[in-house]
Known about the structure:
Blueprint: E1 19-26, H1 31-42, E2 47-53, E3 58-63, H2 70-79, E4 83-84, H3 93-96, H4 101-123, H5 133-151, H6 153-164, H7 170-190, H8 192-198, H9 202-226, H10 228-235, E5 240-245, E6 248-253, E7 262-265, E8 274-279, E9 282-285, H11 287-290, E10 295-298, E11 303-304, E12 309-310, E13 315-321, H12 327-340, H13 344-374, H14 379-393, H15 397-416, H16 424-430
Helix pairs in contact: 1-13, 4-5, 4-9, 5-7, 5-9, 6-7, 7-8, 7-9, 7-14, 9-15, 10-15, 12-15, 13-14, 13-15
Amino acid sequence: MSSQQDDPSGTNAETANTVVNYLPISGMHCASCVSKVEKSLQSLPGVINATVNLVSEQARIEFDPAQVKGEQLKDAVVQSGYQPGEPRPEVSPVTALAEPTAEIRRLRGRLIFAITAAILLMLLPHLPLGLPQPAIALLSLLLCTPVQFWCGSPFYVGTWHTLRRGSADMNTLIATGTSAAYFHSLVAVFIPSLAQQAGFHFDTAAAIIALILLGRYLEALAKGRGSAAIRHLLDLQPAKATIIREGQQQEVTVEQLVPDDILLVRPGEKVPVDGEITQGESSLNEAMVTGESLPVEKGPGDEVIGGTLNQAGAFKMRATRVGAETVLAQIVRLVQEAQASKAPVQRLADRVAGIFVPVVLVVAALTFVFWMTFGPTPAFRIALISAVSVLIISCPCALGLATPMAILVGTGRGAEMGILFRSAEGLEAVGRLDTVVFDKTGPSPRADRW
């Protein structure tokens, strides 16, 4: 079943002069990142539409190949401060859904160190170490420095890229806030009068970095698990097939198959690709397509679908559709395109994020000035903490990440249950339905779920 919502952006209405490419993008962390990449891509002559998905970390770009080339698309992403992969004419499930194990390991190491250091920094002044205040301050500096510049290095790198373009994003907020706390404390280590007036904030800087890293670590885990439904679909296709050439049976990978190849499918094996039975009879479980787990009898001339299970006899088949043309590949592509599309509320969040960060920087500066002017003693300490708080809590990531994550999980869960959505807008519209009509004869084994 597919939702009947039309794509308002018109990205599905491709003409003979336009093509669609999918471009992997790494380094994005918030809705502001998405907005900047989309604006950069859409500014290129020949780009008709560009939609960036934060969770799957890829852009769907509709463009005229006569006016813009793949390298220009990659250059636009680089100028935005992010790292592009290679453009491809179709969604690559293996690439798009690979577990981000390297990123998870990197984040886990930094997170553990940051949390440990932050806890020690908070406990250090209260431990019975018998050390004078200057020694504790110096020890705090030694603990906080690797947190600030190693654990927090992604924030500085992201800030540098955005400042080169004359803009700002979430990284700017975090880097500015934690740097203010760190460098004030650094100066206070060597100027005792400043330390007496405003104190040290090494623990504040370390705790902020640890909390943000925790959020990014959970985000990376969610990215790895959010597409489990599509991975399940991909697992339906066997990795290898038995091909008959010149009367000899030969085992090859599914990627090596071409149309008109003659294949042998034994009992208990899955059909490698779409095709037509040429010899033999069997019964197949086509639940992946129909939702019915009852066996379907097949014989010469009948069509078989890749990924379905051969339950009984062996048969020979002629491959008719392979690779991206199979029914299974089209289901995966449809689900991923729905995940890459944007619901109305998400488009609103992206527009707001484009101007949100500069406004937050101005508000933080005004907050600092206000407390310095009208605040009680010590005014500098209160002003600094207030300004840093504004910078950190104003991160626009909640809606920018939560909405695409909900779309990812919703469309993936729908695919598991045999329900395919053409767009995120269709998924959002389902929440307002009060009646569902099935035009299918006979009871469905899934009817009790509704």
